[in-house]
Amino acid sequence: EQAEGAGEPAQAARWFREAAHRERAARHPDAARRFLESAWALTDPSEASLRLPLALELGDARALAGDPDGALDAYQSALKLAWHFRHRSLGATALRAIGRVKRDRGDHAAARDHLMQALRIFEASHDASGVARTCLDLGRMFWLGGSLDEAVQSYEKGERLFRAHRDRRGLAEAIHCRG
Q1: Is the pTM of this model over 0.85?
Q2: Which one of 104, 117, 164, 174 is most buried, by most CB atoms within 10 A?
Q3: What SS3 string covers the chain?
Q4: What is the CA angle 66-144-173, rounded to 5?
Q5: Rounded to whole angstroms, how far apart are CA atoms 99 and 59?
């Protein structure tokens, strides 16, 4: 509040974001979301280096809070910023997040479109972690839609990538998905 009052809203937004990270680490998602909302309100639209990752974090916080519409708004903002500043990786991350929200709402056609677009971008930029995580999201979408063979193929691809890159956390998630 002091930074905001002193005419330094960008610094205040950074502090709110740091506070949100601490609250999330302490398992207080509602407090984290409130801090992110405050940070978002203080961030100038021209501050892409702060606004772009903040939009993704705010979308995650809103999704966790059970606000899919708010999450979609934040992810769409992130996607728009990513394309404007030609940040392919964060654009793919936003597409993946939008796909997850669409999947959770049961809109599997839109989810597939967003997830496949994210997958292509991650593959083109040689982002193995992004490819693997998107494969797990696709696997869940296929599973929920009754396409079990495609789900298993997606899970196996994600598992192979996590194993090849020695990503133990990702590997555990992939194994958990397969049951």
Answers
A1: yes
A2: 174
A3: CHHHHCCCHHHHHHHHHHHHHHHHHCCCHHHHHHHHHHHHHHCCCCCHHHHHHHHHHHHHHHHHCCCHHHHHHHHHHHHHHHHHCCCHHHHHHHHHHHHHHHHHCCCHHHHHHHHHHHHHHHHHCCCHHHHHHHHHHHHHHHHHCCCHHHHHHHHHHHHHHHHHCCCHHHHHHHHHHHC
A4: 75
A5: 12
